[in-house]
User: What shape does this take?
Amino acid sequence: MRAYEALHQLAERFAPMSEKSGIDLQSQSSQNYMKVLDEEETIQKIEDANKIIENAINNDQITEAEKDQLMKKVQMVPPRKLEHKAVAILEKWWVRYIISMLFVWVQPKIQNYLNPPPPTEEHYEGD
Assistant: This one.
């Protein structure tokens, strides 16, 4: 379960909204999350390519001309924003597992808090 999915399901259960607004909220959050995830993957691919080029440049068996050609292929890595770092962490399998477990544990707690069970006779025995 991804973070935006868990938050949307909690909002859907405890903050009633129309079907249209629920779908709009889910699609917009999904689009924004996937956009940032794609940007993070692009940054990671550039870093990986630059690391491969750097390893090739440090190889003693290539000539200076080949090193110059490889240096031209090194790409500028865009800076990572906080949202990229957050998405990178949220996409780890163990974080997604924790989010799923928290959702299963937190959802009934919130539901009991918002709709407490009716008092039973045991509550009145102490009087």
Notes: The chain has a mean pLDDT of 85. The chain has one domain: 3-116. The longest helix spans residues 19-57.
